[in-house]
Amino acid sequence: MDEDDYILKLNRIEQNIQELQRKKAQIISKLKILETEKEDLQNNYKLAKIRSSKNEPEWVNKKFDWSDEIFKVLKEKFKFDNFRQKQLAAVNSTLANKDVLLLMPTGGGKSLVYQLTAYISKGLTLVVSPLISLIDDQLRALKEIGIGAASINSNTSKDERKYVHNEMTNPGSEMKLLYVTPEWVAKSKQFMSYLQKCFDKNLLARIVIDEVHCCSTWGHDFRPDYNHLGLFKTMFVGVPIIGLTATATMNILVDIQKMLSLEDAVIITAPFNRPNLYYKVVSKPSEKSECLKLLSKWLSTKYKNKSGIIYTSTIKETEEICTDLRQYGLKVKFYHAQMERADRKTVHDRWMKNHYQVIIATIAFGMGIDKPDVRFVIHYSAPRSMEAFYQESGRAGRDGQSADCVLMFNLTDYIKTAAMSTNKTEERNAKSVLHYCMEQSRCRRALIAEHFEDTWRQTDCSKMCDHCLHRKSVSHYNITESLLDITKIIEVASSKEVKVTLNKLINAWFQSGNKEIRPPNLKLPKCPKQVGEHIIGYLISKEYFVIEKGYTLYTTLGYIQRGIKIVNKTTEVLMPYKYEINFPVSKTKEADSKIDDDVGDDVIEISDDTQGEPSGKKRKLDIH
C-alpha cells in the first residue's frame, strides 16, 4: 500500500468518525429533548394527580379506633372543643401511618396536628424545624401544657445531649417530641446513630418536617441542609413522615414529593384565604424622609397603641428606620440575624409583652412568630416572593380579628431585588411580586389564590382589599408610543456605552438632568413622573424590558434593557397603528370610609382630558 492509499484510507476513516460524531451529537440532543419532555410529562401527571386528589373526606367522615381519644385529648390537653379546618384529616392520616403533606395558612394550627398525635402515640416523634428560636417557643408552649419535649442543637450542653440520647432509646421515656434543626441531621453522625437505635427498638413513631418548602429549589426559602432529609425514607422504612408548610405552589409540592420520596403522601390543603386580613398596596415615596413621615403618621394615628411588624430588606435599613422613627417618640425596636441570640430573645419577649409597639425586622423575624394581636404588617420594601409576602403578612390577625397587610412599593425596590437575584427562581419570584403590585383592579386575594393555584370565589374578599373596597373602573390606553420613546433612549445609551438606570431613564424621558442619552426630537410626556415610572414598571412586568445586572466594587446595580418581546422587532413594526400595548388605568368609582389614610395610594391619576373615559375603552394615552 503506497502513501496515497494510506492517506485516502485515513481520510475516509476521518470522514466516518466525523459523520458518527455528528450523528452522536444529534442523538444526544434528541435524548435531552426527550428527557425534558419525559420530566415535564411526569411533573404534569403529578400536578394533575394532586389537583384531582379527593381523598380528604375518608379521613374526616370515617370513625377510627383512636377517634374518641383524639377528641378527648384535644379538649382536655389542648383546650379546644373542635378541630380547625383540615386538622382532623391530617391527624387521622398520620395515625393511620400514611405520609402527609399539609398545606395550611400561617396561624392555621399545623403544630397541633403533630403534637397531639405525638402525645397519644407510643414512642418518639422527631421534629425537624429550621430555627432554634422557633424550637424554643414550641418547647415553652409544650411545657405549659405538660407534654414532654426536648431539643438538641449547637447550644445544647454535653450532659443535656447525653440525657436526650438515653431517652431516645428508653421505652418508658416521657419525652414525646424531640426537636432538631436540619443542620444537626446533616452534621451529627452521633445523633443519627442514636436515631437509628431508636428506630431499631421500634420507638420512632413519626418524623415531622416543618417548613418543608425549604426542601425545594423552586421555593422562596431554599436551604441546602434540607436536602439531607431525603435519607429518612430509606433509613426508617415504615415510619410515617409529615411535611408542613404555609407556602407551597403545586410545582413546589411536586419537588418536595420527589426530594423526600413522598410520592404516595396524602396531600391536605387548607384554603389560603385569611378573611380577616385586609390587603393593600401603596406607592412608596421616593424620598426616605417622606416614607418616615408616612410610617410615623400610621403608627401614631391609625395604628396607635396597636402591635405590628415592619419588614425591611436589609439589616442596615432596620437599624436606620428604627433610629429615625424613635425621633417621632415611637416605641419601636429593630431585629435581625446579626444580633446576639440573647438580644434577639429580649427584643422578642418585650414586643410580646407590648413594651415595644413595633418590631422593625428583616426576614430573620419570621417563622414561628405567634403573637395573636398583631394588627398590622407593613412591608417597607417589596418581599422576595409571593410566598414570602403571604407568610410574612400572615403573622397579622392570628386572633381572628381584622388586621392590615400593607405593601409599600416603588419600582426602584423591585429593580434592586431583581439585580440581587442569583438564579432564575429568584428572578421569577421577584417578578411575581411586581405583577401583584402593578395590577390595577383585580382583587388582591384573587391574585394570591391564583399564584398558589387555589380555588377562588369572588365573595371570598368582602371588600377586604384595596381594589374591592374602592371599587374601580378600568380604562385601557395604548402606550406603544411610550414604548418607542423608552426604546429609543435605551438605544442611544447603548450606542454611547451608557448603562441605563431607572433614574437616568426617567430623566431622559421627562427631559431633565443630563442630555447625554436623550434622543433628538423626543416629545415631553404630559403625565407626572409617577405615571411614567408606573408605565415603565408595567412594561417590565410584561417583559418588554428586563433588568440587567451590573457590578461595582461595592454593590450590584440594576439596569434597564430591551426585553424579549421587542428585541427582534423593528421600529416600524412597533408603530401604534400596527401594534398595541394596553395599559390599564383605574379610577375610583366609589370611596369608602374604612381606610382614611390613602396617602400614597396606588390609583394612577391621568391628566384631566383623559377622565371620564368609559370603562374598558381603549385609546392612546395622552402623555405627549
TrEMBL record:
The name this protein goes by in its record: ATP-dependent DNA helicase
NCBIfam families given in the database record: recQ_fam (TIGR00614)
One Pfam match: DEAD
Subcellular location: Nucleus
EC number(s) reported in the record: 5.6.2.4
Sections of the chain in a coiled coil: 3-51
Acidic residues composition bias: residue spans: 602-611
Protein family membership: Belongs to the helicase family. RecQ subfamily.
Gene Ontology biological process terms in this record: double-strand break repair via homologous recombination
Region called Disordered, residue ranges: 602-624
